[in-house]
Amino acid sequence: MTYVSNFPSVDVGNGVIRQVLSHNDALMVVSFDFEIGGEGSLHNHPHVQSTYVESGYFTFTIDGESFDVKAGDSFVIPSNAVHGCKCHSAGKLIDTFTPRRDDFL
After folding, report:
1. Is the peptide bond before 46 cis (omega within 30 degrees of 0)?
2. Measuring CA to CA, which of 26, 31, 55, 92 is 20 to 30 A from 72?
3. Closest C-alpha to 95, from 77, 80, 82, 71
């Protein structure tokens, strides 16, 4: 079964707002809105993550390597990779996780 969510936006701190867009047991799509200077602190999780940059300009770090991304870019973060980002121009990231991140529900 697929679930289209009506989840509210959640202020997760550091200039970031999260909203679950849709999910099922195997997959979850989540929107993250960033203020200028907003940060996704370094972290890791067992889920494979695909990130699409809808808008803005960010520096991402994955397992100690940093790179810049802008609107239209996308990339995959492997399971358990330590990663995070800093927002240089306000923007939105669309992240897809497999399997679903139950901690976001």
Report:
1. no
2. 26
3. 77
Task: Write the pLDDT tens digit of every residue in 16-50.
Answer: 999 999 999 999 999 999 999 999 999 999 999 99
Which 3 state secondary structure label does DSSP give 28?
strand
**Domain 7-104, second-level architecture:** Sandwich (2.60)
Match 């669309």 to its residue by tokens. Answer: 94
| Cα distance between residue 16 and residue 26, in whole Å | 25
| pLDDT at 4 exceeding the cut of 80 | no
Position of tokens 């799509």?
A: 29
The conformation of residue 102, written as its DSSP 8-state character, comes to: G
pLDDT level of residue 81 (50, 70, 90 thresholds)? very high
pLDDT of residue 1: 59
In angstroms, the CA 28 to CA 15 distance is 22
At 44, the amino acid letter reads N
